[in-house]
Structure formats: C-alpha cells, structure tokens
Protein: 2-hydroxy-3-oxopropionate reductase
Amino acid sequence: MTTIAFIGLGIMGAPMAGHLIDAGHDVVGFNRSRPAVDALVERGGRAASCVADAVHEAEVVITMVPDSPDVEEVVLSPEGVYASAKPGALHIDCSTIRPDVARKVAAAGVKLGVRVVDAPVSGGEAGAKEATLSIMVGGEAEDVEAARPYLDVVGATVVHVGPAGAGQTVKAANQLVVAGNIQLLAEALVFLEAHGVDTEAALAVLGGGLAGSTVLNRKAAAMRAREFTPGFRVDLHHKDLGIATDAAREAGVAIPIGAHVAQLMEALRATGHGELDHSALLLLVEQLSGRDL
Amino acid sequence: MTTIAFIGLGIMGAPMAGHLIDAGHDVVGFNRSRPAVDALVERGGRAASCVADAVHEAEVVITMVPDSPDVEEVVLSPEGVYASAKPGALHIDCSTIRPDVARKVAAAGVKLGVRVVDAPVSGGEAGAKEATLSIMVGGEAEDVEAARPYLDVVGATVVHVGPAGAGQTVKAANQLVVAGNIQLLAEALVFLEAHGVDTEAALAVLGGGLAGSTVLNRKAAAMRAREFTPGFRVDLHHKDLGIATDAAREAGVAIPIGAHVAQLMEALRATGHGELDHSALLLLVEQLSGRDL
Amino acid sequence: MTTIAFIGLGIMGAPMAGHLIDAGHDVVGFNRSRPAVDALVERGGRAASCVADAVHEAEVVITMVPDSPDVEEVVLSPEGVYASAKPGALHIDCSTIRPDVARKVAAAGVKLGVRVVDAPVSGGEAGAKEATLSIMVGGEAEDVEAARPYLDVVGATVVHVGPAGAGQTVKAANQLVVAGNIQLLAEALVFLEAHGVDTEAALAVLGGGLAGSTVLNRKAAAMRAREFTPGFRVDLHHKDLGIATDAAREAGVAIPIGAHVAQLMEALRATGHGELDHSALLLLVEQLSGRDL
Amino acid sequence: MTTIAFIGLGIMGAPMAGHLIDAGHDVVGFNRSRPAVDALVERGGRAASCVADAVHEAEVVITMVPDSPDVEEVVLSPEGVYASAKPGALHIDCSTIRPDVARKVAAAGVKLGVRVVDAPVSGGEAGAKEATLSIMVGGEAEDVEAARPYLDVVGATVVHVGPAGAGQTVKAANQLVVAGNIQLLAEALVFLEAHGVDTEAALAVLGGGLAGSTVLNRKAAAMRAREFTPGFRVDLHHKDLGIATDAAREAGVAIPIGAHVAQLMEALRATGHGELDHSALLLLVEQLSGRDL
Structure:
C-alpha cells in the first residue's frame, strides 16, 4: 500500500483515482470543487483540503489537470506540490500539456529532490473507467519503472518513450492522428451519404480493410447516429492541437494535414460546438457541404 | 465447378485467379502480356488467346484491370466482354474505377442480358495473396448474392453496399481514408523523430489507443525502416484520389482533408516516386521538413 | 464594318455586343431567351432566330456561353456554328471552358476551314460594361491578330498567350489567383474585426503596401458592408476552379493553395450561396469563425 | 530639429535613420555591430555606445529590431530604453512583433511616463530606401499624431489603425495576405509553365484584370527569372506567420488558407531556403511538382 496524493478529480481523474483505491492504495484526493472530493471519499479514499494537505505525506503524487498553466500553478506555485512534497517523492503528471512545460516542471522537481515523469494518457473517459488507457511516459528510466506499478493499475498499455517531456510529445502526435482520423471518417461518411450508399455496410467493409481504425470501431456508430455526448471534448482537443502545432513549429517540421485539421477543430469550436465530443467534426463537414440545412 | 473467365492477371488478379482454381473452378485466363497467362496455366488454369476466347463459354467473368478506360475497352469494345458473353452470364468487375463509368458499364450489361456487379477490393497484394481482401459490392441484390460465392474465395469481408456503382463509391471513400491515415502517420513519425523520441515505443502506445489503425499496424514498421517496396503504388493511389475528388465534387460534398491529401499524393508522384508504395508519403513529409538532406 | 454573329447575350455578352455595335459593326445576335435578343435590337443590332441564322453570313462569330458543354453544343452540334459558318470565318470563343475542350473545338474548326481563337475574359460585369476587360487569347498568331480589332473594342488588355487552348489555361490560372486573393482578404478582414481593429484604416494601409491587390481595391468596401450582389457568381467561379484543378492534375502540377481554395468555394456553394458574388467567401470565413451567430 | 535615438540599424533601420537625418533631425544611432553605427555617422548622424547613451537625451526613440524577445530586451531590460528615457519621451517601435508583447511594452512605457506607439512597416528594403513604406500605427490618438511627422519622413502611407498593439495586428494580417499572394502567384507560374504558356504575356494579362496585385507587379519578373535575392527573407516571414497564426488562434478566428500558407513557408525554410527572398515559395511549388529535377 502506497500513500498517493491525487490532484484533479475530473472526468478522467476520478475513475483513475478509484482504480488506485481498488488496488489497495491509500489515496488522498484534492479537487477545486468539493463534490468530486466527497465522491472519492465515498469510494474509499481520503479528502484533502488543499494541495499541500494532500501532498505532504504522499510517496506518490499524481496530477491530472486541464492545461499547462494549471500544471504550473498546481505544481510550481508556493502553495503547490513541490513546496510540500517529501524529498524522494515520485510525481506522475498525467495532464496533457506542452512538452516544454513538462521539461520545465521536471527540472524544477529534480532541483527539489522530487522524481518526475510526464505520463499523459489516451483513451478518453471510457478508457479511464475501464482502466484500459494508453499511457506514454517520459522521464528517467528508473523513475518510469517506479511509476509503472501505479500506471498499470489504470492503463493497458504503458510505454516509456524517452526523457522528460517525451510523453507529452508523443501525446501531441497522438492527438494529431486522432483528430485526423475522425475528420477523414467524417468526410467519408458525408461523402457516402451524399451518394446514397448504405453507410452501415460501407463502414463494415472499410473497417475490414486498410481503412480500419480504432476511431472507426469506437466512433462511427455514434457519428452515424449524430450522437456527440463527450467522450473527449472539442475544447480540449483544440487545446491539444495548439500544443502539437507549436511543437511542430519548434522542431521545424511540416505537418500540412495536422495543421489543416487544427484549423477545422478551431472552426468547430468557434461555431459553438466546444462542449461536444470531438467526433462532432462530422457537423462541420455537413455544414461545409450544405447538408445541415 | 463454374467456368470463370478472368481478365487481368496482374499483381492482384493473378493470386485471385489462383484461389479460384484452388477452390475447384475452371478458370480461363487472359492478360495482355503472355507470361501471366502461362503462370496461370502452371497453376492449373486454362489459357485464352483473347477476351472473346476467354469469355464465350464462361458463366462468370471477372475483370481486374487498372483504370476506367481499361474497363471500357475490355468490356464495351467490339472485341470486349459483352460482345462475346453468354446471355445470363455474371460479370464481376473488381477494378477500381469511376462510379459513373461503373454505372454505365452496368447499364450496357443489362441491355445485353448480362448481370453486372462492381466489386472493387481493398487489402493490396498481401490481401490478394492471403485471400483476405475487403470487397465492396454494388449491384442488384440477387446478382450480388450470385457473385458472393466467388468473392468469398478471395475475400474475408464481402459486403453489399448499394446499387450499381456503389461499390466504387465506397472504394473511393476507402482510398481517401487510407491516404489520409498514411499521411497522418507520416507526419507523426517525422514529428516524433525530430523531437528525438523513440518511435518504436511511441508507435506501440499510439497503436494501443484511439490513434490505432490498420495502416499503423501494417505500414509503420516499414515506414520507420524507409522500406517502400509496393504493396500499392503511388501512381494507382493518385488515380484513385482523382476518382474520389471528382465524385465528391459531383455530389457537392466538401472534403477538405481528402482534397489536401490528394494534392500531397500528386506531389509525391510528381517528385518521381510514383512507383513506390503509397506509404512513401513519409518521404514527402521529410522533404517538406528538410529532413531529407 | 464587319458582320458579327454574337451568340450568348447574358450579363457579359450583352454589353460586349453593345460595344461592337457602337464601334460601327453589324451585329446579329442570338440568345436562348428572346428578351436578350430584343434588347440587342433596341441597341441597334439585328435579331437571329437560331444559331444558323446568326452565323450563315457572318465574317466573325463570337460565342459567350457558360460552360464547356454549352460551347460543344452551340459550336459543334448539327445545328451549331460550324455547320453554318462561311469558310474562312473567324470564330472567337470568349467563354471560359476547359483547355482540352478549347483545343478540340479549334481542331474541329480548322478541319472545316474556320479560324478559331479562344479568348476568355477577366474583369466581370463591370469590365464588360466599361469595355476594360482583360482578354487572354490562344490560337495561331495571324488569327489572333485578325481577332484583335474586335477584342480591342471590349477589352483594355488583349494579350496573345500561346496556341489554341492557351487562353483558357491562362484564364484558369487567373481564376485560381482571384479566388485565393478574395479568400485571403476575407480571412484578413475577419481576423482584424475579431481583434477590434478599424478595418477601413487597416485596408488603406494594406492596400498601400505589398498586400495591395485589385481584389482589395474593388471588393474590400463591399465586403466590409456585407454587400454580395454579383458581379461574378460563386457558381461560375466554382465551375472555373474545377477546370483549374483538373488542368493542374493533367499537367502533374501541385497547387496546394489553389486546391484548398477550390474546396472553400465548393463549401460556399454547398451552403446555399451559389448566387452571390464570389467575395461572399467572407461569409464562409465568418461561419468557420463562429462570427455569423 | 528633434533629437532622435534610433536603435537597430539593419537593412530596414539604416535607410530609415538616414532619411531622418536628411530631414534635418539630430539622429543618435545604436546597433549591436559597430560598422552600422559608423555608417550612420558618415551619413551625418551621431554614434551611441549603448542603448542608454542613445536614449538619455532623446525626445523620440525609434526601435527597429527583429523579433519580440529583442524588443523586450532592448526596451524593458535594466539597460534598456525605458530605464534611461526622459519622462515624456515618445517611443516608436517599428519592429514587427506579437501584438500582446506590443501591448505589454506600451503598458510598461505608460507607467514610466513614456508615450508609446507600435508602428510596424511594410514595403521591404526598397520601401525603406525610397521612403515609401506603409506604416500601420497603434496607440493613443495624440501619441500617433506626435509620431506622424517622423513616420511621414520614411513612409508614404501612415495610418492610425487602433489602440496599442493594433499596428501589429494589422501587420500580421498584412503578412498573411502577402505570403498568400506570393504562393498563389507561384502556383500560377508553375501551372502556366507546365502547360507551355508564354508566362510573360500571361502575367501581363493577369495583372490587367482582377488577379492583379502589388506582389505580381513587383515580384513576378524576378520569380520568372528565379532571382531570389532578398528583399524580405523567408526566415522573417516565417516568424511573422507564427505571430499571425497565434493571434488568429487567440481570437478564435479560422484562417484556413493563412494557416496552410504558414505551413508552406515553414517547409520552404526547413528545406534550407530561409535566407532567400520570400518569393522563393516558387521553389517549393516546383519541388512539389517535380519540376526541380
């Protein structure tokens, strides 16, 4: 049994913390809004009143917050994780943030004797609930190994991909591919519908060939039904694509389709669909094809 | 045992005809270049000296040729399939061609008492050899059912998607999705390499999450190794994307990413890579990122 | 004074025919709808009851119709221009059509002893009314010189750009550039408005520098006022971009931005704005930015 | 006669400072590399040994440096402009930087009693030498009027476009439009050349119609001749497009073509052409069309 501070008990964080409790750990949770903490206590965890309270006796600290500035505040501020963490504590940041911020956070941790890994996850709410997340981990090999037992509790695929920040870089690539796959499926669906094709049959055959994808397997039925309850929200995917396009520019890499999809996600958000599932890119294709009238 | 005329014994056609022989059918083959016919005879088939010779006593005629004009010539010309086919014969066109040409061919067949289905395939040379093709079939329901026993011999997924031409429409959508998936994977790989990430590990984790795809499973290792032996050639995929963008324009459907990928495939071909596997889109991304120097 | 048959008295054709009358020529007009012919007679021209009637005694035949199939019908059909034209007549096709169709028409004319030039125009309704059109002419040098006196009556810039079809090729390039310039101006306007900038002042300074363009000079004020009366209709520009992207594919040329703009024009048309001026691309940018709510 | 500190005597700054000397002002120049300062002295100006030395008795301070971090250092650092400027001095920043940094600089100036305007310029080296720059000015109306006499010395079009930062926003829009216009012209040229058209004639007619632009007038001849001596460097335009795409994202505005062109400029730079004139986008189009072989 390990004492684990879990900061950020949202759609993703709550079920992840729950699995760690189920695995026998002593989980002390903190979240800005109190009901999420209460839910954790009902699940068998303990409540903390602030970050410092959660962290000060933890051997492992897991953070799962929305964006780079959130991580900077929660971890680096005077009331943050590193101000109260025990020397030798292991910090696992599961948030999806900028690779450069992840490296900055890791460097700050090292100075204070905290071991840090960046461990963003893929798989969405379903993956979090089913403990089948894919987790891409950046950091020192021994720290990643130290984190692995906890990550294995919430994920099905846990892979060490490189040094500090590498997890975030891989997550950025992941988000480009996922957004692109959704958009391609959306274009294919609208194209097939416009031609009067039976899309259920068509998707079966597409899925059986080289066009098959996890997006098709998991999202196509809901897209055909115009069911866009998140899942993973457009607003967050838009944020992630901003990270990815910035990281590509930083590296001098051309990502023509990635950048194009980022514009489409931007447009989807701008048209008021930020709260929908990212598969709502279908709505944009319909709109651009005059099929929403 | 059915007498089957098989016209077009190329990379795809030869193994497909072979499977039909193995399944006990009497396969009479014709190909413009003689060695392909000789190879069929060695496999246990019979040789025809021209289309008419192959077709005149066949109950089933299968055509597998490169492009729309080839189908028009092989099927509709005075020396073509329909001039010699027996009344009631079943014509299965496995070529990938324009949906409007498929509809025109089907209409011509119906006038002459030939039953016609369009049945383009997905899965490439490997799928043809392993008899695991995905086959999207357009035509009258009873004709599709008549064709199914033969298609089941060469394919793992055989689906009736709609009336005449619908198979080609679905194939066009398939080619858009496949090209897009390859391009996205290429961008992700160059992005990850530029950031110094271990791409083998990264692809493992991408494949385990929502970014997973058949393209990633089948193509990523060769792409990492810069191994671009076809497989499916850029020239052909370029042709197919022309069909897809035309079909989208005809239907008034916007396919922003599809059209963009078509331009990239065009560029890949223009830069002299038409003979490589379509996964060579990676070379274009490298070139655009200055990583080919 | 030359007897000129003028076929196609629409928004562009009517004022062009009028200028030729004003210049002292004997203009015999035909149009599918009769009121356009009556208007020409009032202007001082003569009425023809059919193409043959217009053409049979003409030394010069000018055609100005919407699209490639229209030209093929009006010119090549048994009741068309070439069936009735005098040997040695000069045919000036001012329509905007496919370069390959222009070459086919020219070849057909040559066989029958008709001299043919393709002479598509740029400048829109205003240019036609003010006789300030830009005219890009393809054909044999001596035929182009023979056509020049008539073209000078309706245009301010008349340039011989190459052999048969070359005028259409240049027009295709023209339409790519114009559509792109409009789209860029639309993006700039929405961007500036979203940032609260005084766009009238901003456009003044953009126009004074390297961002200046004829599109900015002629279209920006109406775009700021959301005034989209054509001018040149989205439907026609969409048709022209289809010609341009096909011609690029035929030549193996990558036109990434041109193809992208063609998709946006397609989307604008699909969303029901085909009858507006092409500067309505602004509406699409607003829609994609959620600023149309 | 006004005492003017001029910081940054590069390709743009040197001729601008020269014009101010010619207009009778007392110009004290500073530049990191000494030869540029010596050249100013020869022209009739005075040399400063550091920023503080240049600024401490100046009524007007003009800065013309490459990028946002340069402005922050030159202006805001302890050895910077604001640490030494006289109360009531007028600071005119002609650099092209991020609008948010411009606003931050202006706010810092106001606190210290310095009046600040952002006044980025368009027109390139030629415009600087000929004193025909377009200048887009952001700031308080009275400060802009105070700056106008000095800006009129170096520019032909000086326009107040809004509050602090607005000049930079307009410059960002300007750079999007310019890059797009160059790219469109490059695509048109390669397209026309591939079709064997006489491009000199074609450009004459394009320039006379709705496709006309300042880019065409000033750049087309050099592009036809493959002459890419800057002018304005790809590296700088790439930087500016990063500012523009960030500013668009910040405002929630979709700029599909702008973002696409930014990718192409990125690719041009990545392929080793960062030092060429931005019209070298033509090389990229040639490369993508296989016409560089």
